[in-house]
Structure formats: C-alpha cells, structure tokens
Please model this.
Amino acid sequence: DADVTQTPRNRITKTGKRIMLECSQTKGHDRMYWYRQDPGLGLRLIYYSFDVKDINKGEISDGYSVSRQAQAKFSLSLESAIPNQTALYFCATSAAANYGYTFGSGTRLTVV
Amino acid sequence: KQEVTQIPAALSVPEGENLVLNCSFTDSAIYNLQWFRQDPGKGLTSLLLIQSSQREQTSGRLNASLDKSSGRSTLYIAASQPGDSATYLCAVPSYGQNFVFGPGTRLSVLP
Model:
C-alpha cells in the first residue's frame, strides 16, 4: 500500500457541486499539505496542517476548505466547484521542517 | 518571499549523455532542498533531499549539489536513459516552513 493515498484518483463534477478530496497517510507524519498543479503555474499551496488542531491557509485558499480528522487524514473540500478549479491536486506529508515531503499520486479534478 | 527558478525549461538529449539541471532560489536561509521527478499526469517521486549542512547527495546515477550562499542547486544525471524522461522539480522551504516549488525542467532522452 502507498504511504500517502488520495481518493478519488479522477473526478468529473459539475459547476456548483460540493466535492471532497481525501488524503490518508501511514507515515506517522504530523504535517500534511494540499497543493494544486496547473500547467505553466507549477505547484501552489492551498492549505497545510502541522497537527490535528492546526490549520493554515496557503497562497491560494479561496474557494477551498479543509478538515484534519486525525493525524492520518486530511480532506480538501470545494464548497461550490467552478471550472477554474480544474487541476491536478496533490496531498503531501512531512515529519518536520527539516524533513522532505512525501506525495500522494494525485487527484485529477475536472469541473464542467 | 522565496522564489524558485529552474533552467532550462525543457531539454532533449540523446541516450547516454550526461546532463545537468539547474535550480536557483532567492532566500538562502533554508533547511534543505529536495529534488523530485514527475511523470506526465502522475505524482511526485522524491529523488534526493539535501540538508543545508551538506554540499551534495548521490543516489545511483543522480548527484545533487547545493550552494546555499549563491542560492543554487544542480542535479547531475549520468549516462541518461530513455526511462529518465520526465519533469524534474526542485523545492526549497519558504521561511524554513513549507516548500516552494520551481516550475520544473522537462527532460526527454531520445533512444
């Protein structure tokens, strides 16, 4: 099994719908992150969490919300999806500031 | 604010060549630097993590160097193979916290 698992792998949804992307990890890491990747714009940080009670906005948090249900689970929600949220979404984990990241395989989201 | 650039944006080489990918960052107060590989539409695979106290790290045919004072890192790939074709990204922490990613170098190794 993968260390960082994202579900679903692919999703097509309609404008205005609420959608949740889920991430779970078996690394035992405290830090979890959500990034989106767009062609030409690279990876941009949406939200991050350093422990269960800690939630922080990244550079592009508008239109998104997150929930850290447990140390191992970090979910990203789009309350009302719009087409420009079509992107590849990645979850990542890290043990601490001087450790590297481990990424999930990504969720490809298309909003039509 | 940490900014990361990578040169070249794309590179095409014949199989067997040695090559160098470059990464530059603006804030040298970093804990570490990480190189990743990404295949099209796939996730990011960690290749090498260099701590700020290190000058280089090696893994197989890959060697990454770090020069904090000049804000540069290089990824050296020896004896390139078609299976090395992918996008390579470097990432450095911003203010010692979350990673900021470069735009990547898209590598094609031709048989």
Remarks:
- The interface with chain A takes residues 31-32, 34, 36, 41-46, 49, 51, 89, 91, 93, 96-99, 101-104 of chain B (CB under 8 Å).
- Chain B has a mean pLDDT of 93.
- Residues 26 and 104 of chain B are 16 Å apart (CA to CA).
